Each structure stands twice: as C-alpha cells, then as structure tokens.
Amino acid sequence: MTIERLFINLSSPKGKVDVILDTDAYNEIDDQFAIGYMLKKTEKFNVRGICAAPFTNEKSNGAADGMEKSYDEILKLLSFMGMDEYKSKVYKGSERYLPDESTPVESPAADFMAELAKEYSPEHPLYIVAIGAITNVASAILKNPDMKENCVVVWLGGHGEHMPFQVGEFNMWQDVAGARILFGCGIPLVQLPCGGVVEEFATTGPELTYWLKGKNALCDYLVDNTIKEAESYAKGKPWSRPIWDVTAVAWLCNENWQFMREKLITSPIPEYDGHYANDFHRHFIKYIYKINRDKLFEELFEVLSR
Length: 306
Description:
- By secondary structure, this protein is of the alpha/beta class.
- It has 12 helices and 12 strands.
- It has one domain (3-204, 241-292): Alpha-Beta Complex (Inosine-uridine Nucleoside N-ribohydrolase, Chain A).
- Strands 3-2-1-4-5-6-12-9 form an 8-stranded mixed sheet. Strands 7-8 form a two-stranded antiparallel ribbon. The chain has a two-stranded antiparallel sheet with strand order 10-11.
C-alpha cells in the first residue's frame, strides 16, 4: 500500500461502507449501544457480520465462556430490534487468546474475516470495528496477511499515550500478542484509547431515561441494563458510565471531525511490561485524542430512538 493510499484509508470514509463488528458484548453495558447504533444507522453501514470476542473478568470464567456469553448477547439484541435476519451473520470467536505472535487461534470469526477480506481492495476496503480483545482480528491477519491491504481496523484499545500504563487497558492487556500483531503489521489502524480520551464519553441514568426510555424495546433494555449495572456498585450515589464502544463505530461517521479529533502518529509498540515502546521509523496510524461528547450523544440518541 502506498503512503498516499494509507492516508486516504485513515480518513473517515464518505458514503455507505461495508463493516464487521467484533464485540465482547456481554462484558459491559456499552457494546450493546454500539451494536444498536451500527445496525440502526442503515444509511451508513452495510453490516457484513458480527463476531463474538473473548473476555475474562468477573462476568465469565474464562475466554471461551466470555465469548459464548457475548455470542448469546448479540442474538438477544437482534431479537429486541426485530432483526432476526442478521442472526445468520453472527460468528463465534476465539476460545482462548493468542499463544504467541505467529500462531492464530482458530474460530469461525477469524475464518470469516480472513475470507471476506479477499473480496475487497485498498481502493474499496472492508472496515472492521473491534471493541474487545483483538484476538479474532489478529488471528484473521495471521491467516490472511493480505488483509493489511484490503481492510481498515478501528479499535477501541489501550490507554492514552500520555497515561503511565498504556497497555494495561482491558481490551489490550488481555491479548498483548494480538495487539503487537495489529500495531506491527501495517494495516490501516485507527486507535481510540480508553483512559484519558474516550472515557469522556459518559452518561447518567437521568439522561438515558429522558432521551431513550419508552422509545422502543432496544432503548428500554439499554436504559434498564445500564442503570442496573451502575446501581450494583453506586446505588444511592451519583454515577456516570462511559459508553466507550460507540466511539469506535462513530469514527466511520466523523466527516469534518464532528464527533472527535484525530492525528497521525507512528505506530507504538505494545510491550509485555504494560508500556509502549516507540520507533519513529514505523508506519503511521490514526490516533483519536478528543471526543465531542455532546454532539456524539445527540447522534446516538437520535439513531437508537428510531
């Protein structure tokens, strides 16, 4: 890929695009907002598939369990939205994280991405929005290295470059080997860092209730699920919740920088000690450094309410 084409593909695309969403949907309450936003904004997105990503925390007993629960959550959301026709486009992902930087984890999701990418080109790329551990995407790249020519990856992963423990963010820390593949292979990459950047995109129970409650079954689920989760640790206290994952989808709609600000940086190197190393001779990626919180929530609430 020429440097000119790289810069073009690192710009938010105009018009309708083909997209895959890779999501650990059961992990938190924000993936559900991102799924609804993407599927309802039909004028922008032609959704080719939704892939379930692994995760490991108190909501799962391991990567495989997290992936299975995410797969089930995606199907449940499609039922809420009356979009059962998309259920055939949902793929199970990895049951474990990458063992090293050269061995892919086999899964239907990785096979789907690797094969579908062959239909595209640098001039007409496939967009992959990843909002969980990057295992599925990194495995697909190992299976089909030509993906770096035919795809653009938008990943919510890592913390801000100004933060002290950049690689320690949940999505990136689960699979550092996968992150090193993604940042090192040369694929056009848009990074939305969590801590210090995307955490600005937060909302509250009263705001969600005012704008979404009663609009449709999906909106009711999103409101109730978010409030229930927040009150499990902050009942009777003020709280706000980042809805970070929406920002990765929204980058594809960021014409004229209406939702976020961005810059080009040389691709950092995620290290196993939790920090970035830098080699300023590496290729460029796009780095998001500021979210227009109010403008993006205005867009999100309008789309979800449809």
